[in-house]
Amino acid sequence: MNPLTNWDWGFIPSTLLVWKLDCLRTLWKFCLQSQKWTSNLYSKASKTGFESEDLVKSVEVLKERLKFLKNFVGFVTQHGVEDGQLGPLFVHTEFITANAARLSFTWNSDPSSTSNHITDLLHKIIPTESQVHETCVLALITSKASRHPYRDSDEPMLRDFLESLLCNIWSILKSCTFRMISFKFQLQILWEGFRYLRTIFKEKPKKFDEKVRDLTGLVLCDAGLHLFSLSLNATNDGFIREMDLVSPDLLENINLIKLTVAGECPETSPFNFPRTNALGFIDFLLKYMTDLTSSEASLAALANHPVQTIQKDLGFLRSFLGKIVEMRNGDEELQAVWDRVVEVAYTVEFLIDSVLVGDILDSCSLSFDSIVEEIESIKSEASKIFDSKRLDVKQKEVTKRLNQIPTQGSKPINNDVVVGFEDEATSIINRLTRGSRHVQIVPIVGMPGLGKTALAKKVYNDSSIMSYFYTRAWCTVSQVYVVKNLLLEILTCIESKHSERIFEMSEEDLAAEVKKRLLRTRYLIVFDDVWDMEVWNRLEASFPNDGNGSRVIMTSRLRDVVPQDNLHQEPHYLRQLTHDESWNLLKEKLCPGKDLLPSELSELRTQIVEMCQGLPLTIVILAGILANMDPSGWKGEVQSLSSRNVSSTEQCTTTLELSYKHLPDNLKPCFLYFGGFPEDHEHTGKRLIWLWVTEGFVQATDLKSAEDVANDYMMDLINRSLVMVSKHRSIGGVKTCCIHDLLHEFCVEKAKEENFLQLVRGYDELYTLNVPRYLRRLCINSTTKDFNDSRLAFPTVRCLLFFVHGTRELYPWFGLSFNFHLFKLLRVLDLSQINLKDTFPREIELLVHLRYLAILGDVYIPSSIANLQNLETFLASSRSLPDTVWNLKKLRHLVWIGQFSFGGFRLPTENLDKSPQLCNLDTLSRVRIFSWENRDKIFKKFPNIRKLKCELTAPHHPAKEKSDNILALDFSSRLESLSLRVPTGFGKPYPVEFHLSLTVRKLTLSGFCLPWSKISAVANLPNLEALKLLREAFVGETWDLEAEEFPELRFLKLASLDIVKWTAIECENSFPRLQKLVLEKCCNLEEIPSSMGNVSPLETIEVSDCPNSANSVNEIQEEQISMGNTGFKVITSSRRRRS
């Protein structure tokens, strides 16, 4: 029985009050103990054998509610509330404390029954019984009316209660269904205001005086009263009534606090929408509104709203903006109109998407009717401006500029060129190869952008270093690093392929593994971008000192990154480039391979080298600017910079700003998007392009797909020296890319300034985050726990990227699954760095606007994934897909992103004849086809696919007909890249005849065990440019080319094959266009066709672990050199350990 019943409230002495407070302290100890439950819960649950995720969530909720009860009593008892007024509340507290103690005992004795007890306690812990609720409300009213001022010593109590109220607002946002936009916005304003107050408590500005403390106490009282009201007035089905709108006085007092401390806190612009590429966004919106007309469901939802009228008027205003795009700079009147149009466009998009997810437009200030009125007002204003300024109606439209094709094609400026520093490199090499036989650290120190990493790479890839050190490894540290990840990075350099267990090892085991791999071998390890000596302190034990001359290089902006005991010589302080080196670097970047320079450039030599003052980054950026200008404008551009000290950090920022200013508007969002990723992040080119397309930065043209246009954008950014290529694809293009740290920081700050996106790093930034109300993109680099604890809720966010900061947690998805509905307008959701294990967040199914979804883990994908009818890119690591995947009509990229070389999707085969085709699918990567009988039916589901990567299993029964052995891969007239793999161990020829599409440009085969005579099926493909024959693709000791084959092939790789002789006795003209040959782990290979020596385009032969092919390769090298191909290179390496 509840002890509140029949209690005589008149007999509560003050001594009893003290005892009650002791109970409260006991209760808080229980709250702290519950945190230990959370960390140990899964290990206990695994022993008892029952599902525990719901129990963990319940414990977390219980902890927060207990904390609220404790903080509430602390708040009201310290400010004007008499002891006797709290009788019912203290009895309630005693009741809760007793139940909490019972619950703790129950967990220790019978954990399987704990869940129901927690649920019961959760229902009772928030006061809802009339007497207790009335006591709480009266206590808050009394506290509000009190004239006692709040002291400095009260600030912890204010902060704690504020935190509890913020938690309760968050709970309401999560647990209630909001369909009225006005209430949602007011509650969001309250939530943002409380987060702002929390920031004030943390930063303690000088103006946070007694007046602000008293005003804060008043706000907390009003908010507490409002939340108690909500807890009673919420209906049983979770909907909030219209009467429960947030008090205007409460919001006004929050704003008053903001104004009081505004002198020390950052101001926010009244224009909260993104400023970047406004015309590109309006074009995207207009196309989006047009596409809605093809959806019956969308038309029905929007039937009562004047969407078509608004679309027509927006088209008119888009045309007007195109005419004033250049004139608005410096013209406040034109800029004001511009901002109004952009704000209307973003508001229209928000209203349309809100209606499509079922929200009710109940606010007169935020409705389609108000938009129509605003548009009419803008049109009237625009007409007046047009007449008064007499704008030229034939002014060039920016649309043409947006669709402009880069002038320099797709070949980027060579980002790998290192000019100068010859003496620096020689000095470093001498320190690495001479001197003491003990392990030594060689620090390379210098200012940002001076070329520390470039010099380290030059030394690292020097032929003398490659031959001297048997093992080399490179890892990038940065300001935020995880030791476990550094160890994995080192191991990956030592051995590129690992078993699955390596990723499950602890940090200690990884450290031991690194040491094991480095024992008795001379090694060179590079730690790039080091910020403190703690890195070496934690990793030193992993690097054995065998007295064989091993070395470690560290690059850093700081001098003191190496402990003095380990520093045998002074750090190598990197100098600036000389004038001649600066000039040579500019020439190589701006006019690669040219001896005769444009006269316009030669005339500017003195000005340029003096202006850049030996800073490579500035030279590279300047080259990027000049490369995209007419030479006639070079002089004016250089003179505008000549008076600035570009070597300083401030000047670097100015130079970066200038580079950004010169970007076409269509490239600016693509460039700023790099600011949404962690520092030193290596971007996969394809995924970055898919994100740009999904975000609407890129539009398809009549001749090119959106992805192809985006690739042009990327190459343009590379040509401007803003993006660096990390890895090239075999036949050109970008496999991975990155940007310099200075450029990254610039993107972070500029993106924030323009309300484009917000990158939040670590809990401190999450805790104090103050962002525009219409934040569009939120990028988190933190732990999932910090993300949950920060209680972020931005209903307008369209993009959420999450990057794990730290090692993967055992169950890192906890708490995330029930938060996604707070971001229900999301178009982009990337959780690919969070291992969800086997749990699919079901709220994702409600994100009907999603176009891009990336999730990691062996997640069971539910059939309701078909609700995501707008999904275009789906990246996952699940083993199977539901049969409803065939209903995702807009799907363009379906990619398996598991961590290992094996694995892939298993496509559904039920009702294939009745299932629709995925006509828009462009990329299908890593699919496993188990059904031999259904393989042709599956392939025909993708009539327009361009890239296919799949694994084939062997048939269970011999083919009845010869035609059953034909692998028909000519089902798509657009197929360009094809990768086919049979699992290792099949051991006999795969019973198949290839029928390949003539459009294939890149082909990878593995595991088929076919005789070399079967290679004719691919040899004469007219468009084949890259061929990779991997483990057991073909078997047999001799491959004899019998005819003129591979007419267009530019790249050939042979890896892990049993071939001994590769001849071309009857075919001297094979591979006429071959540029690069890669031989890897063909241990028995002795002979390579001598005709390779006559292939004039051949540039490189890479040989790794092919010990018997040296003579044949040397003969080819001699023949190439005799033909005058002085640039021909042979690169040899070995992954084998040496002692």
From TrEMBL:
GO molecular function, one term: ADP binding
Main location: cytoplasm
NB-ARC domain segment(s): 422-593
Keyword vocabulary terms for this entry: ATP-binding, Coiled coil, Cytoplasm, Hypersensitive response, Leucine-rich repeat, Nucleotide-binding, Plant defense, Repeat
UniProt membrane topology term: Peripheral membrane protein
Any one Gene Ontology cellular component term annotated for this protein: membrane
Domain named Disease resistance R13L4/SHOC-2-like LRR: residues: 819-1104
Pfam families cross-referenced by the UniProt entry: LRR_14, NB-ARC, NB-LRR, WHD_DRP
Compartments reported by the entry: Cytoplasm; Membrane
GO biological process: defense response to virus; plant-type hypersensitive response
InterPro entries: Apaf_helical, Disease_R_plants, LRR_dom_sf, LRR_R13L4/SHOC2-like, NB-ARC, P-loop_NTPase, R1A-like_N, RX-like_CC
Record-linked Gene3D superfamilies: 1.20.5.4130, Helical domain of apoptotic protease-activating factors, P-loop containing nucleotide triphosphate hydrolases, Ribonuclease Inhibitor, Winged helix-like DNA-binding domain superfamily/Winged helix DNA-binding domain
Domain of life: Eukaryota
Domain (Disease resistance protein winged helix): residue spans on this chain: 677-746
Residue span(s) of domain Late blight resistance protein R1A-like N-terminal: 55-257
Record family assignment: Belongs to the disease resistance NB-LRR family.
Function description: Confers resistance to late blight (Phytophthora infestans) races carrying the avirulence gene Avr1. Resistance proteins guard the plant against pathogens that contain an appropriate avirulence protein via an indirect interaction with this avirulence protein. That triggers a defense system including the hypersensitive response, which restricts the pathogen growth.
Name this polypeptide is given: Late blight resistance protein homolog R1A-3
Organism of origin: Coffea arabica (Arabian coffee)
